[in-house]
Structure formats: C-alpha cells, structure tokens
Amino acid sequence: MAPGASSAAPSAQPVASNTAAGERPKEVVNDPARTGFDPQMKWWMNYFRILSGQMTNEGMFHYREWRYKVHEERDCKRCDDYRDWLFTYSPVVRFLNQKIGDLNGKLDASNVVCRRCPARLEEDGQVHRQSGGFSPDHGILLCANEVRDRKHLEDTLAHEMVHAWDHLRWKVDWTGDKDLKHAACTEIRASMLSGECRWTREAFTRGKWKLTQQFQNCVRLRATQSVAARPRCKDEAQAAQVIDQVWDSCYSDTRPFDEIYR
C-alpha cells in the first residue's frame, strides 16, 4: 500500500486516451556567437567545431537538440515499432497491461505515444533529459529521441506502466500538494520493478560494477532524482529524506508482481 493512501482502493478509471501525453519543457534559445553552434551550417561543419574545441558545452547541447529535430520522424517511427512489438511480445509489458486492464484501465497506441522530448538546460549548465513520462489525464509519453534500443524502451515503458498501475490502484497524489510520499513510493516501485536497475543494465550501460547493494543504490538514486525534479520538492536533500521515510514499506511492495521480476 502506498504511504498515505486509503486502505480502501478507490474506483479505478481508465487512463485517458489522448495523443498529447505530458507537457514539453520550454526550449532555450541559441546564440551562435556565444555557443559556437550555427544551425545555418551543415551538420558536419558543426561537428568539426565540436571536435576542434570551438563549441561550448551549451553549443553542444543545442547541436544535439537540433539533430533530434532533424531526425524526429525517423525516431518516432522506430519508437512506434518498438512499442507495438513490446505490447505483443514482451512478458513484462503484457503482464502489466493485463493488470492495468483488471483495474479498468486501458493502454494502447492511442495513449502510449512516441514524441520528441526537448531537454532542459539550467543556468548552471546542468542538462535534464527524460526517456518517458506518465500523466493520469493523458497516458504515457515515450521520448523517441532518447531511445537507445528496444530493451531500453522496454525498461522505460515498464517504469511508466508501474506508475499507471499505482495510479489506478491508489490514486497517487502526483502534484505533491499534501506531501511527497506518494511520489516517492511510486518512484521507488517503478525503478525497482521495471528492470532499469538490474545488474547487467548498471554494469554494461552505466559502468557500475559494484557487487553489493548495487540494485538498492540504483533504485534509491533514481527515485531521489525523480522526486527532486518535482516542482513541490525544494532540493535533493528533501527528496532523499522523503525516500528514506517510505523506503522500507515501498521497497518491499512488489505488487502486481509476486517478486521482483527483472
């Protein structure tokens, strides 16, 4: 049971069918004279500027976003193909979809959509990217430009489907108006049950080879980062504190699975 949720499950409503899942962050404006990136040049000329050190980190950010725009149609087509394959053949996606259906929810191509997701550049130079998102009013957003391969999309989709199941089961307080415990719990569960923190993913994709507590550390880190990104959260310190408060109960809750599947 999610912390702070009622012991009686609310009547579940279907996840709304809407092709505009999630809100896109505002895209920052590039200044070629300052960043070294000029969209009027050929891509290889800009790439040469990167190799020769003539482009700032901000310029490289804008270059990457520019290339994502150029390849948006291709990326979305690939993402759509992966999504359709996963709904047909992936054991974890099919299982979660069945459990969501048991709660009168519905997820399909109408509300699991692939879109280009612009990144967000902070004043301190930090870049925030996302691979997906869940909206109780719209459905699931899959960020086509951030998809590395089908396995990566499977982890992302499973993560967001855990959020969908949690919402239908417990009516999660996504805004954090009351407190951030709901958000903390569902982020712990999504990172734990999606497979994104399995040892092979940590080792071969993220270069983390620690043998002890690696899975728990990954779940805690990713959940903390997700909670810290919410508008109601002041900083990572507050996010870590909330994660600690709900960790024992939420980390031990593997529903709708009998145990950690991946």
Automatic annotation (TrEMBL):
It holds the Pfam family Peptidase_M76. One of its GO terms (biological process) is mitochondrial proton-transporting ATP synthase complex assembly. The keyword ATP-binding does not apply. It comes from the Eukaryota. GO terms for molecular function: metal ion binding; metalloendopeptidase activity. Keywords: Hydrolase, Membrane, Metal-binding, Metalloprotease, Mitochondrion, Mitochondrion inner membrane, Protease. It is a peripheral membrane protein. Residues 1-17 have a biased composition (Low complexity). Residues 1-33 are annotated as: Disordered. Its EC number is 3.4.24.-. InterPro entries: Peptidase_M76_ATP23 (IPR019165). The keyword Transcription regulation does not apply. GO terms for cellular component: mitochondrial inner membrane. Transmembrane segments: none annotated. It is found in: Mitochondrion inner membrane. Has a dual role in the assembly of mitochondrial ATPase. Acts as a protease that removes N-terminal residues of mitochondrial ATPase CF(0) subunit 6 at the intermembrane space side. Also involved in the correct assembly of the membrane-embedded ATPase CF(0) particle, probably mediating association of subunit 6 with the subunit 9 ring. Belongs to the peptidase M76 family. This is Mitochondrial inner membrane protease ATP23. It comes from [Torrubiella] hemipterigena.
